Amino acid sequence: MAATKKTKLLLMFPKELTGEPATWVLVKEYDLKINILKASINYNIEGRLLLEVEGEPRKINEGIAYLKRSGIKVEKNGTSTLIDTDRCIGCGMCVAACETGALTLEPYGKVQFSAEKCLECMLCVKACSQRIITNAFDRF
Ligand code: SF4
Ligand code: SF4
User: Fold this and answer.
1) Which one is the CATH code of 5-76: 3.30.70.260, 3.40.390.10, 1.10.760.10, 1.10.150.130?
2) Cα 89 to ligand 2 centroid, rounded to whole Å
3) Which fold has domain 81-138?
4) Separation of 1 CA from ligand 1 center, angstroms?
5) How remote is the C-alpha of 78 from its chain's centroid?
6) How many CB atoms lie within 10 A of CB 91?
7) Is 59 in a helix, a strand, or coil?
8) Do domains 5-76 and 81-138 have the same CATH topology?
């Protein structure tokens, strides 16, 4: 059996594709395991879906190609965690709150973020002393 890998995909649906059964197709046609991390779909308006997909790298790429062909925008290693790092004071409150190691402090004191390690739990949003961490799905 070929080796599998996990990757996070942020899908953005235009209004005419909000009814597209994209996750079903990824499972059925590309043999991918799907974990829905966040979803916000307003039928016939717009939609966002944050997925963790697991499967053979070739099938993941084919699945991404299918999504793009369909007109769905796809961001690999996408995340809903947005950090305005220009305003970061390096206090480390978010780093202490993050249980996955997705946040670290750079030597010169700014926070550094790894979308790959992030579980989208949003604990850091509440922890940030400067309120500069936001959830992209909240603005949607
Ligand atoms: S959302 Fe959760 S996992 Fe992601 S960086 Fe914030 S605290 Fe860490
Ligand atoms: S809590 Fe906010 S200000 Fe402090 S290090 Fe994290 S992102 Fe920067």
Assistant:
1) 3.30.70.260
2) 6
3) Alpha-Beta Plaits (3.30.70)
4) 33
5) 4
6) 15
7) helix
8) yes
Which residues make beta-bridge pairs with 73?
12
If we measure between CA atoms, which residue out of 63, 38, 60 comes closest to residue 50?
38
Vertex 54, ends 47 and 118: CA angle to 5°?
65
| Ligand at shortest distance from the CA of 118 | 1
pLDDT tens digits for range 42-67: 777 788 899 999 999 999 999 999 99
- Whether 140 shows a pLDDT value over 70: the answer reads no
68-119 pLDDT, tens digit per residue, is: 999 999 999 888 899 999 999 999 999 999 999 999 998 878 999 999 899 9
